[in-house]
Amino acid sequence: MKSKFKMNFWKIFLITISLTAALGAGYWLGKGSNEHNASVAAPDTPAAGQREVKFWKSPMDPTYVRDAPGKDAMGHDLVPVYQGDASQTGGITIDPVTIQNMGVRTAPVKRRDLMRTIRAVGLVAYEDQSRFSINSKIEGWIEHLYVNQVGQFVKKGQPLMAIYSPELVAAQQEYLLALDASARLEQSALPAAADGARRLLEAARTRLAYWDISEAQIRELKRTREVRKHLTLYSPYQGVVTMKQANQGMRVMGGEELLQISDISKVWVNADIYEYELAWVHPGQSAKVEIASLPGKVLMGKIAYIYPYLQAETRTVQARIELSNPGFALKPDMYANVVIEGRPVTDALAIPGNAVLRSGEGQTVFVALGEGRFEPREVKTGLSGEQGYVQVLSGLKEDETVVTSAQFMLDSESKINEAVQKMMAVQAGSAPAEADHEGHATPADNEDLFK
User: Fold this and answer.
1) How far apart are CA 209 and CA 231, in angstroms?
2) pTM for the complete prediction?
3) pLDDT tens digits, residue range 228-250?
4) What is the CATH number assigned to the segment(s) 86-115+346-432+441-446?
C-alpha cells in the first residue's frame, strides 16, 4: 500500500513538472515572436497614413503648449500640432469654426484695369510771362499821372504818365540841331560832311528812342520843330495794373520801377497734388476746374507743367493748368476745385488694398492655402486705384487667394507660432544652453513650458 502511494506521487510530480516546462516554453516563444512582429510592423518612422505629433496646444490660447494630450486652463481639449503643418513652415492652421468666429474674408488675386480720379484744390495765378514792369530810364519828375489806380485796365499804347526831364529837353534840342545840320549839308560838295551830319541825326534820334520816346512823338517833334517840356510814356503792354509806386509830382530815378501790369486774358491754376497721386498725373492730361463764383460751370483745361519740387508747407507738388479767361471771370488768388482723370493702368495684377499689412520693414499679405491653412507672404505693391484695389508688383500669382479681414489676428497667431517654434527648438537642444550677453532666453527659461 505504501509502495503504491509512492508510485502515484512520482507520476503526479512528473506530470506537473512537464506541464510547467511546456507553459514556460510557450510563454518565451510567444514573447519572442511578438517582439519580432512589433519590430517589423512599428519601425522608427510613423506608419503609412500617420503623422507625428509635434506638440499639443490649446485651441483658444496658442501660448498654452504641452507635450502630451490633456485640457487647457479653460477645460478645452488640447489639439495636436503635427510635424510638417503649415505652422512649421511659417504659416498657421485654424479650424473652420474659429475662422468663422474671427470673421476671416478672402478675395482672389486677379488682373484688372486700375483707374483713379484725382481731386485737388488749386489757386488761380497770373501767367508768369504776362507780367510786366514799367520803369523810368531817365531821371525826372512826374508832371501828370494818367494811370493812378491799382486794378485799372490798361490797353497797349495807352499813355501812362508825362515826365519832365532836363535830359529829355536837351535830347530834343540836340535832335533838332542835328536835323537842321543834316538838311544844310545834304547838298554839300563834301560828301564826308553830309555823311557825318546824317550819322549825328540818327544818333540823336536813337537816343530819344532808347528813352522810350515813341516814333509818333519823334515825328511830331520833327514836324513842329518845337521842344516840349515833358514827354509822355505809353504802355507797351495790355493788362491790369497790379502794383503802383508812382505818384504825381514825385521825382523818379533812372531804373526805378513805377508800375506793374499783368495780362489776365489767360491764367494758370496751380493744383496741389499729393506725393502718392503723382504717378497718375502727367503733362497733357485734361483737367476740370470749378470755381465757387461760377456755380454749375465747368472749365476745361490741360496740364501744361508739373513743377519739379515740393511745396514745403503743404507737402504737395503743383500741377499747372492753363485756362483762357474771357471776361476776366477768373481772378488771381481765387480757389478752384480741380478734377483730373488719371491715366488708367491696364491688365494690372491687383488685390484689395485692405489685404496688405504695412509695417516699417515691408508689406505682408496672408495667402489662404485651403483647409484652414494660411501663409504670410511679403509683397511689393504699386499704384492704388479706385474701389480700394492696389497693384501687386511681386509676391503673388494670379488666382491665388488672399485674406482681406482679420489679418491682424492671423498675424498675431503667426508671430506666436513662430515664437513657439523657437522655444521648442531651444528645448530640443538646437540652441545654446546659456543665455547670451544680451539676455536672450535660454532652455532653463523655458523649463516650465510643458509642465
Assistant:
1) 12
2) 0.60
3) 888 788 888 899 999 999 999 99
4) 2.40.420.20
